[in-house]
Design a protein that fits this description.
The complex is a heterodimer of chains A (298) and B (104).
Chain A (H helix, E strand, L loop, with lengths): L2 H11 L1 E11 L2 E12 L2 H6 L4 H13 L14 E12 L4 E11 L2 E6 L4 E7 L3 E10 L5 E9 L4 E6 L2 H11 L22 E9 L6 E10 L2 E5 L8 E4 L3 E6 L11 E6 L3 E6 L3 H9 L11
Chain B lengths: L6 H33 L4 H25 L2 H23 L2 H8 L1
Classes of the chains: A alpha+beta (298), B mainly alpha (104).
């Protein structure tokens, strides 16, 4: 029996809770609780004659306001395609994907959420300057193709779509003006920048009361090495590739056992001691960051 | 032993959990919808609207899972929950299992 079956049985049969409670001190009742609760599928509820009026009212109200929450097209505007998708909301507070439907018409590109209705993002096609496909690593670690749209006012948006390639092609075809559909990637060293090596990495942090091994995540890109502990707000160690003068395996014993330590000589920070389960990968990539092959996920 | 709590994997886990619970609710809604449809007091227009909305909900959840790359972990979690429920229900309806377990 699955969880879904269990819930079904519960809802089909229905459950009733009836509770009367008095809290008394010195046999004088002070607080009273009278609790009645019933949970059941609506069909069962109606069988027992509960919530009948409410059910009828709700359906009658839905009947009256039956206007569908579709996108209103302007006069003469024609829909080109609609598909499931979303918009990345990225203001100062949140960075979150908001799901909805991507509508492409011959005049606009709109991301619409139907219920509760809200236009999540909208742009006139005449203002769209560029569209690109970008690959992004998701929270779950899988790679996903997004559609980056840039508009004339310099702002842009990152959209997700059920079929990003098709959306891009249709957008290029529908846009009135010339459109850059493949340009240089955004120069921001975002999560898109290819990682040569990435993984768990120990960092021997110099502290006032002696050095301390701390676990965290290391990420080596052509720009340099960044180490961040999950407990810190920002990376504790940022080594620009140009600053690294030498890398060599260390002899001492690290937190992960024998032969896991390696040291990095830098111009500005002196010797930095690190440890990894597979130090060879890091040492090799750090020794020649520019020539090392990128991971296939990049 | 050091425990590393990765912010990303935490987000991944919480998101998977929430989506799994939403899936359970969605499944319950679908089964109750079938009962209501068979109950026969919905109008044709209501039947159509209900069907469309459930289909859309299903697609939206699939999309959310794919968007965050958690399809696999949600499926795993759902399977895990099912196993736990199966186990508990089995024990509840078959008291003989307790004796078996006690003997072991």
């Amino acid at each position: 029996m699955t969880l879904d079956d269990l819930v079904e049985v519960l809802l089909n049969k229905g459950a009733v809770l009836h509770l009367d409670l008095i809290v008394a001190v010195a046999d004088i009742p002070l607080i009273g609780v009278s609790l009645r609760a019933a949970v059941a599928g609506m069909e069962t509820m109606l069988e027992y004659g509960m919530l009948r009026q409410w059910d009828a009212d709700t359906r009658a109200w839905a009947m009256r306001s039956a206007a569908r929450h579709e996108l209103e097209l302007r006069a003469g505007e024609e829909s080109v395609v609609r598909m499931y998708g979303g918009h990345l909301l990225d203001d100062d507070f949140h960075t979150t994907w908001r799901p909805g439907t991507v509508h492409l018409t011959d005049r606009r590109l709109v991301v619409l959420r139907r219920d509760p209705r809200e236009v999540l993002w909208e742009a006139e096609l005449s203002a769209v300057r560029a569209v690109r496909l970008e690959s992004e690593r998701t929270v779950g670690g899988e790679s996903r193709t997004r559609v980056r749209v840039e508009t004339a006012d310099g702002a842009g948006a990152l959209l997700s779509a059920a079929d990003p390639e098709r959306l891009r092609d249709l957008l290029v075809r529908t846009c009135p003006g010339p459109l850059t559909s493949d340009g240089p990637r955004s120069p921001l060293p975002g999560p898109d920048e290819r990682a040569l090596v990435e993984g768990h990495l120990w960092y021997r942090e110099p502290r006032r009361d002696g050095p301390l091994w701390r676990g965290g995540n290391g990420r080596l890109t052509p720009a340099g090495l960044v180490w961040k502990s999950p407990l810190d707000a920002r990376p504790a160690l940022v080594l620009p590739a140009a600053d690294v003068t030498a890398v060599r395996p260390g002899a001492e014993r690290g937190p992960g056992g024998e032969g896991t330590v390696f040291t990095v000589e830098t111009g500005s920070r002196g010797t930095v001691t690190l440890a990894a389960d597979e130090p060879r990968r890091w040492v090799e990539a750090l020794g020649s960051p520019r020539d090392a092959p990128a991971l296939p996920s990049a | 032993m050091a425990i590393t709590v990765d912010e990303k994997s935490l987000k991944h886990g919480v998101l998977s959990l929430v989506v799994t619970l939403v899936e359970v609710i969605q499944e319950a809604l679908e089964r109750q919808a079938v009962r209501r449809m068979e109950g026969g007091d919905l109008t044709v227009e209501e039947l159509e609207r209900l069907g469309d909305a459930l289909l859309e909900l299903d697609e939206a959840i699939e999309e959310i899972k794919a968007d965050h790359g958690i399809t696999e972990s949600v499926a795993d979690l759902h399977r895990g929950l099912d196993e736990v429920v199966d186990d508990v229900v089995d024990k509840l309806v078959n008291p003989a299992r307790w004796a078996e377990e006690a003997r072991r």
